[in-house]
Write a sequence for this structure.
């Protein structure tokens, strides 16, 4: 298995809201370590004020999918809409699957879904381009 995929097996690539951070180019270049990371020395720091992250930490949920009010959550509404429109990603479904399958099995599914057949790297769910070799699936 390629080193990018090995790094993607780290639980830091599972966000609280349902994003697969392991497919993000910022994660692979090291400017972001995911919202679960406690590493303070990283370029992308908006996670520290993320209301979804803070809510899960406060309620001790692994992800938003553990919350009984997932569908009615007001703090997720704009994020859900933006990811659905811009990237065709259903973060509610992702969060529910993290909860129902468990983080490890959900993560294995994401790695399989975004595996680059050209180089063994990871396809970014945002633009469907491999973060390692630049291969485009679209």
């Amino acid at each position: 298995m390629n080193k990018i995929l090995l790094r993607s097996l780290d639980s830091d690539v599972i966000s609280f809201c349902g994003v697969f951070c392991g497919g993000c180019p910022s994660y692979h270049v090291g400017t972001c370590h995911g919202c679960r990371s406690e590493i303070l020395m990283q370029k992308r720091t908006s996670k520290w004020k993320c209301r979804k992250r803070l809510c899960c930490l406060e309620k001790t949920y692994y992800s938003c999918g553990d919350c009984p009010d997932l569908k009615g959550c007001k703090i997720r509404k704009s994020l859900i809409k933006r990811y659905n429109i811009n990237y065709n990603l259903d973060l509610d479904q992702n969060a529910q699957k993290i909860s129902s399958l468990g983080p490890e099995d959900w993560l294995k599914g994401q790695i399989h879904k975004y595996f680059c057949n050209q180089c063994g790297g990871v396809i970014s769910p945002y633009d469907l381009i491999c973060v390692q070799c630049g291969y485009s699936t679209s």
